[in-house]
Specification:
CATH architecture of the largest domain: 3-Layer(aba) Sandwich
Helix content: 25-40%
Radius of gyration: 23 Å
Number of strands: 14
Largest sheet: 8 strands, mixed
Length: about 550
Amino acid sequence: MGYERADFGDKPVVGIINTWSDINPCHQHLRARAEDVKRGVWQAGGFPLELPALSLSETFMKPTTMLYRNLLAMETEELIRSQPLDGVVLMGGCDKTTPGLLMGAISAAVPAIFVPAGPMLRGNWRGGVLGSGTDAWKYWDEKRAGSIGEDEWEEIEGGIARSFGTCMTMGTAATMMALAETLGFTLPGASSILAADSSHARMASGSGRRIVEMIWEDLVPSRILSDGSIENAIVVFNALGGSTNAIIHLLAIAHRAGLACDLDRFDATSRRVPVLADLRPSGRYLMEDFYYAGGLPALMQRLGSLLDGSCATVTDRTLGEAIADARVWNDEVIRPLDRPVFTEGGTAIVRGNLAPDGAVVKWAAAEPRLLKHRGPALAFENYDEMAAAIERDDLDVTADHVLVLKNAGPKGGPGMPEWGMLPIPAKLVREGVRDMVRISDARMSGTSYGACVLHVAPEAYVGGPLAYVKTGDMIELDVAARRLHLDVDVHELASRIAAWRPPAPRPASGFGTIFAEHVQQANEGCDFAFASAVTRLREPEIH
């Protein structure tokens, strides 16, 4: 390899686990950023080695990156465990890469610091601002309605993603990078820096310097993560109006660390923490505005006593010390506590006979009229059936119907694809309808919006109550009361349960077999049961 013994002898060996890929637009700059990290490692007296890992490109990977989050976690863990590494720098940002990298590093139990990819520049179309994902859904419906044509759509496609980096709305990528920082795994302010900003390269080299110090301090994840840091992450998630996907990922991260966390905790925190970040899809602004307004440290500083400032971070300071000097520079983007975007967190956990183990609603991104709704179900057994019917002009559907999609959960998808923002039927789109109550055991993109009830647990594929819904059944949703109810006579429901038969197993091989056999339900974090709170393996003794 061309190294002298002096290059690595008596120096900490730092693994740079990089999810760069030619097919991942969010990570196009991470090849260069790895060199910035290496510079920092060399400067601090370490020996850097770059190791490629699964990239999980959200825009191209099929059937869903969620199917492979656990594979990245396994790869990360085994890369660390099997190689002579004293500590690692984790490089990612596109939706599932952040939790996958953190989950693996937590299980491997060596010092680890996270370098977030950062959001892209804001989009532009005909003098207006575009937000990735959110405005794609919005204008796609306008195209379906005939309000814009193919030429306009191509212009929107050309202007909505103007640089490398992750989605610049408060989607899953931005949410999870922010939560990685809140949990203490990044340098202060790292998650808000724009991917194309020169400060991003400086943050990368600073992370390289810091990991070397962390190795000498033996600052492993178990010394950073705590019950307080998990609660801080849930608080910040609500204050950001973050992606519903973060609930699944935080559950998995907490369980990897052996920390208690469940859906009730998310709901209880949501009731006491306001939304302060006025960011799309729940608000008006984009991540570039958030960065200029002070970024995540400013938002956390404004949360004050709602956060536990005593929690540890990858720096030699507590979280409270790290954000002590942060300031908000734009009160419209990051609101004061006495003038929030919403007085409660943007998500709610609903339960009932249709979701006994819980379901998630991002009510802040829905039309308020639908937050208490009763209507007849229009049920689809699977995605293909839904996709074939939804464009039909003769579809028997009204705006009061509740669209129900089954068999799209962790096992049923497989992998729980982002199908939860079911498209509004074409005939209703042309009539001006832009939101309906939609229920599924699927997820939706963090950039999505609407009255979508997601993550219904247990899922239909394993015999959850969603499997028994028929077209015409009345369904009641009451977000304020946290209630989701299937209004079917108990004897009729018992008859349906008795008649239900499990779907035929899907052909699977390799990782697909492991996934199908071991994935947990959404309310448990969709991790593998055998991966939770793994104890650290002893290194072999060399004689």
